[in-house]
Amino acid sequence: MYFHIIASGSKGNATIVASSNTAILIDMGISLMRLKKGLQEINLKVSDIKAAIFTHDHCDHISGIKHLSPKIMYALEGTLPSSLSHVLELNKPFFVGDLEITPFAVSHDAANPCGYLIKDKDESLVYMTDTGVFVHDNLSLIKNPTYLIIEANHDVKMLLNTDRTYELKNRIMSDVGHLCNEDSAMASISIIGDKTKEIVLAHLSEEANTPELALKAYEKIFTHFHINKDKYVIKCAHQCIPITGGRYPNED
């Protein structure tokens, strides 16, 4: 299993997750041109996408759905018009090719937000962004993934010093907003296990966070709980610079 995060942030989101035989798209909040360019970087085409699964109905996650066939769209009820998607149920797995996909609940101010657990043989990936808190009821489902893509949206001090409105700051820091760096690290500690290889910090705010601050928060929290961060590849996704992770089919 491998993944390619084409874009991650409030200006647009799109991630490819693929096995040797099946490629899926998580969210489509970018232009068709950018999607094609991102796919070319991993030798894929738009026609190779077997499913597009959506986390929620905010514009930065669905603005590009007009470029996709309704036949490949999957989402929870209320996320997309039912005529445009296969309607999913929370915690109920389904298959696309050789990938097993299970949506799970997150806490965000959207119609029916979710994250996804994706399995391919003995590997698994958890994708969890846009959530104000970590929903611990999901832990038994998503514990110990091979790859964890998790939101680390903001540094609290940096957010408070922005010129954003009081209401927007409160919304971001609320239980239906976005995870700050420290809360992201705490959630990761609960989720990771002996099978975990990579942790990707996603949906970083360009105004209220930096990769350096996010990684520093992880180092501080992991050290406090006596967790050796060097056991994992920990990196940040970006709004404009794609990153790749996981294991390509021909890799050992």
Outline of the structure:
The chain has 252 residues and is an alpha/beta fold. The chain has 7 helices and 14 strands.
Task: Explain what you see.
By secondary structure, the chain is an alpha/beta fold. It has a single domain (2-246), classed as Metallo-beta-lactamase, Chain A (4-Layer Sandwich). Helix content is 22%, strand content 27%. The chain is built from seven helices and 14 strands. The chain has a seven-stranded mixed β-sheet, with helices on one face. It has a seven-stranded mixed β-sheet with strand order 7-8-9-10-11-12-13, covered by helices on one side. Helix 6 (181-191) packs across helix 7 (211-224). The termini are close together.
List the helices and strands and how they pair.
Blueprint: E1 2-7, E2 14-18, E3 23-26, H1 32-40, E4 49-53, H2 59-62, E5 73-76, E6 86-88, E7 94-96, E8 99-105, E9 114-120, E10 123-128, H3 139-142, E11 147-151, H4 156-160, H5 166-173, H6 181-191, E12 198-202, H7 211-224, E13 233-236, E14 243-246
Parallel strand pairs: 3-4, 4-5, 5-6, 10-11, 11-12, 12-13
Antiparallel strand pairs: 1-2, 1-14, 2-3, 7-8, 8-9, 9-10
